[in-house]
Design goal:
Pfam families: PRAI. This protein is an alpha/beta fold. The chain has seven helices and ten strands. The chain has a single domain, classed as Aldolase class I (TIM Barrel). It is 30% helix and 21% strand. Helix 1 runs parallel beside helix 7. It binds the ligand O=C(O)c1ccccc1N[C@@H]1O[C@H](COP(=O)(O)O)[C@@H](O)[C@H]1O.
Length: 220
């Protein structure tokens, strides 16, 4: 089994962090997007972030956030990475890397081959790419909808930077997604929830197990 890294997104409580650590995941996603059921205030995010042990990378997810919003997040919350999940351009990605000195992962929504066109340029600007399902017009959120896309579009593909697969992954389908695409990193939110916005420790553990194989968890 290749070395697979797992991001669990949309953590809201210290108990969520404990579940992620016990499962052996590598990244913890904190959502700063008021329309999301996983949105955190700065105070809530601080509590969640300070519960994370060294070795669990804390990723702030934002959507077309302005500098003032990002300044407040970065000032209040200890972070290891920014995840940009809106319409940020390569220039904006580069500017934010420079401004905050944090690695930036840029999300790209994919529904068909044409959506892959901008990936080369984006991979020059970002530290990592996150390839997610493109949200349908009627979707409430730009991500975190539990929808997947045709994995054949990205199967066996390589870009200049590491990439992560997202969109509708679950404990039941993640092993197949890895096998079909040859991706080395996976991200999940809806697929490890008991109800919308509420994480389920058993599904988190099952997801990490299915993605990484039955190895002993890395963190305790
Ligand atoms: O999780 C959210 O609420 C969210 C809100 C706005 C943008 C992105 C969001 N989540 C990200 O979406 C993908 C896929 O999530 P899912 O597993 O299909 O629910 C993932 O990268 C989340 O980080």
């Amino acid at each position: 089994m290749p070395d697979i890294r797992v991001k669990i997104c949309g953590l809201r409580t210290e108990a969520d962090v404990q579940a992620v650590v016990a499962a052996g995941a590598h990244y913890a996603g904190l959502v700063f997007f008021p329309r999301s059921p996983r949105h955190l205030t700065l105070d809530e995010a601080r509590i969640v972030a300070f519960a994370a042990p060294p070795g669990l990378a804390k990723v702030a997810l934002v959507v077309d956030a302005d500098d003032a919003t990002l300044d407040a997040i970065v000032e209040a919350v200890p972070l290891d990475m920014l995840q940009l999940h809106g319409h940020e351009t390569p220039e904006r990605v580069a500017a934010l890397r420079e401004r905050y000195g944090l690695p930036v992962m840029k999300a790209i929504g994919v529904a068909d081959e044409g959506d892959l066109a901008g990936l080369i340029e984006m991979s020059l600007a970002a530290d990592q790419l996150l390839i997610d399902a493109k949200p349908p017009r009627e979707a409430e959120l730009p991500g975190g909808n539990g929808l997947s896309f045709d994995w054949r579009l990205v199967a066996q593909r390589r870009w200049l930077k590491p990439w992560m697969l997202a969109g509708g992954l679950t404990p039941e389908n993640v092993a197949e997604a890895i096998q079909r695409t040859n991706v080395r990193q996976v991200d999940v939110s809806s697929g490890v929830e008991a109800s919308r916005g509420v994480k389920d420790p058993a599904r988190i553990a099952a997801f990490v197990r299915a993605a990484t194989g039955p190895a002993v968890p890395r963190l305790r």
